[in-house]
TrEMBL record:
<feature type="region of interest" description="Disordered">
    <location>
        <begin position="1"/>
        <end position="82"/>
    </location>
</feature>
<dbReference type="GO" id="GO:0008494">
    <property type="term" value="F:translation activator activity"/>
</dbReference>
<keyword id="KW-0963">Cytoplasm</keyword>
<dbReference type="InterPro" id="IPR016024">
    <property type="entry name" value="ARM-type_fold"/>
</dbReference>
<dbReference type="InterPro" id="IPR003890">
    <property type="entry name" value="MIF4G-like_typ-3"/>
</dbReference>
<dbReference type="GO" id="GO:0006446">
    <property type="term" value="P:regulation of translational initiation"/>
</dbReference>
<dbReference type="InterPro" id="IPR051367">
    <property type="entry name" value="mRNA_TranslReg/HistoneTransl"/>
</dbReference>
<feature type="compositionally biased region" description="Polar residues">
    <location>
        <begin position="44"/>
        <end position="60"/>
    </location>
</feature>
<dbReference type="GO" id="GO:0005737">
    <property type="term" value="C:cytoplasm"/>
</dbReference>
<keyword id="KW-0810">Translation regulation</keyword>
<protein>
    <recommendedName>
        <fullName>Polyadenylate-binding protein-interacting protein 1</fullName>
    </recommendedName>
</protein>
<dbReference type="GO" id="GO:0003723">
    <property type="term" value="F:RNA binding"/>
</dbReference>
<feature type="domain" description="MIF4G">
    <location>
        <begin position="131"/>
        <end position="348"/>
    </location>
</feature>
<dbReference type="Pfam" id="PF02854">
    <property type="entry name" value="MIF4G"/>
</dbReference>
Amino acid sequence: MTENFDRAPGAGRARTKPRSPGLADVGDGDATSVFNQREPLRQPLTSPPLTENNPNNSDTIGGESRRPSKPHQFIHNHSTPASKVKSVDSLVNSSILSANAPEFYPASFSPYEESVSEDGSDGYYTEMTLAELVEEFLSYLNSSPGSFETDIEHMVNMLSSWVTTEETLQELVELIYTQSTAIPNFSYTGARLCNFLSHNLVLSPASGNFRQLLLKRCRTEYEQRDVAVRGDLETQKKFHAYVLFLGELYLRLEVKSAKGPPSRAEILLIALRELMNTLFSNPVDGNLICAVKLLKLTGSVLEDVWKEKGKSDMDQLVQRIENIVLDAQCSRDVKQMLLRLVELRSSNWGRVHAAAASDATPDNDPNYFMNEPTFYTADGTPFTAADPGELVSRWTRKGA
């Protein structure tokens, strides 16, 4: 190029029309480019429409014509011979490409061949396993326990479609037991789930139905109690989770009877009694805290059942607790927990039996004023029959 870039802006630009439509000089020497000699391409929607006074596709500003800022012709490389240049329309007309053509795949690739990852699993889609399904259900129930009543039936229906053999039933029992003793604070919901499955899971192979297999699994852990209660910290922690789950299971699991209403599993009652003795046999802080939690959870129910059978098992447990408070080398906080537990039992586990209507007085019935109507004074202050002195003083002030 021989032009100097220091030239003034606009210098050398010609405002004259091209010598022939569609032809223009674009370079130096003998290098030329050929524009499309057909009608100009349609203007973009954002550009001004063409008018009859502007036939050469130029804009009119103030009576002057100028070239468009962006030509609508294709400028080819200067080195390309003019004889080999084709117009856009001719290329489009002669093209064999189609928007409806099938997808292109390399010759060595099959579009229907499944992608397999290095570990042998399907790279696109893997069917969910029973373990993943149960884990998803339990995770949902753990995060949304209030949805148990509304969603449990749908969940059990899905599990029933999966659990069709003895092996899958045993796997289901193991999965629910493991999750119920491993997830913190899930023992209550897990026990409710076990009770619902025991009544609604129809599969009952020769090895036993869901409830029977669950109790067998609990017995396996029960037989290891003497070792677990003296194990390391992690072993004791797992054992304590098992004990609390068994307590929830005793309260929630219903055994149907043809002779009467559903009852609790007798075998769990015996197991809980022995588990508490096992915890007290090694009175370290962790075991004693677990025993306190278990008795707060089940103490009132256990004592009622033992009293109906004429047994004094709860008296024996309380006596053993008092001996531990006096002799065991447990921490001061744990001793305070044991003493509060003894006080709770002495108050009938916090239960208040209402006195007969004819014998009820403010002195012997703490709920005497609970159902009394509420009255209001002239200034809107509420009062009940429990405030006679306040009422008299207000009347006295008004009378005065």
